Amino acid sequence: MRRDVASRIIAAAIFAAFAVLPKEGLSRIIDKIIAVVNDEVITQRELTWLLTPIYGQYKKEYSGKRLEDKMIEAEDMVLNQLIDDKLIFSEAKRQGIEVTDKEIQAKLQALKNNFETEEGFRDALAAQNITLSELCDRFKTEIMKSNIVYKEVGWKVIITPTEVHDYYDGHIEEFMTPQKAGVLNILIKKGADSGKKGDQMFLIERIREAIKDGREFKDLAKEYSEGPNAENGGDLGLVGQGQMIEELDGVIFSLKPGEVSDIVESPVGYHIFKITTRVPASTVEFEKVKDEIEDLIYKKRISKNLKKWLRELRKDAYISIK
């Protein structure tokens, strides 16, 4: 477990690029050396592989000068991560860290399990212009790095049961699930034309009167609602407290099961809610999360120790950025 946590800290998934690169993948990237770390090189291909998904996300969130600045920032960050990565691998080689074929095959099988067929796995390799031999070499490298980090940093981290319990007690809100309510919703949207006859406010008032007169809420939702799941009687399922915008959330969690709200206005339109059930807030038991907490504490400590160790490696390293 501890060794796995160390591995996750120092390396991203080998096949993160599968979901973000075009079919031609990295084969179209003109490869060149952009940095040298001891006897290891960092290539443009490696940098682009890691930057591609980041750039894709940034293009959805930013534009113009802000996008340009974020992309430059990302390149600097990823290049520094690659330098650290090469420092770790260089030290693993210097210390003669060995990897067994059994370890590599275990990694390979874990990856294959993500594919329905062997053919699908092979197609994924081909799409990224990666041979099986290259993949195994990459796994060997990742295992070497994981092992050296554990040897130099990981095994020194000791966490006591008291620390784990103290974290649980001090962060109890992190292990609480909010109260939930089963919610039915009728929504008449604002706008020039709601798709129904008459004024939107007049229509929602008529619907509210019909509910008072005994009409079935779900039938009215199917007939009039323009909200989600109208065809299912406006059933939103279980809604957690805090999921809705504040004005709606406050109304929903002030009602008891079976109660129907007054008309509630939101930026979207006019709502009527009915509560079908309530699930009280609860706290996850310590025994169910203690391993998760221990991993969290371990990850924080090993990250701190790893940074310190990397600073020491940099002092004696040859690093040249082209």
List the helices and strands and how they pair.
Blueprint lengths: L1 H9 L22 E5 L2 E4 H18 L2 H31 L6 H12 L5 H10 L4 H21 L8 H10 L5 E2 L2 E10 L10 H13 L4 H8 L10 E6 L5 H7 L11 E2 L3 E11 L2 E2 L2 H30 L3 E3 L1
Antiparallel strand pairs: 1-2, 1-9, 3-8, 4-5, 4-7, 6-7
Helix pairs in contact: 1-6, 1-11, 2-3, 3-6, 4-6, 7-11
Structural features:
Triger factor/SurA peptide-binding fold; alpha+beta; 52% helix; four-stranded antiparallel beta sheet; three-stranded antiparallel beta sheet; 322 residues; Chitinase A, domain 3
Write a brief caption for the model.
The protein has helices at 2-10, 44-61, 64-94, 101-112, 118-127, 132-152, 161-170, 200-212, 217-224, 246-252, 286-315, and strands spanning 33-37, 40-43, 176-177, 180-189, 235-240, 264-265, 269-279, 282-283, 319-321.
Q: What's the CATH first level of the largest domain? A: Mainly Alpha
Structural class: alpha+beta
Number of domains as seen in the coordinates: 2
Assess the beta-strand content as a share of residues: 5-15%
Shape: elongated
Q: Looking at CATH, which topology of the largest domain would you report? A: Triger factor/SurA peptide-binding fold
| Number of helices, counting only DSSP H or I runs of 4 residues or more | 11
What share of residues is helical? 40-55%
Q: Roughly how many Å is the radius of gyration?
A: 28 Å
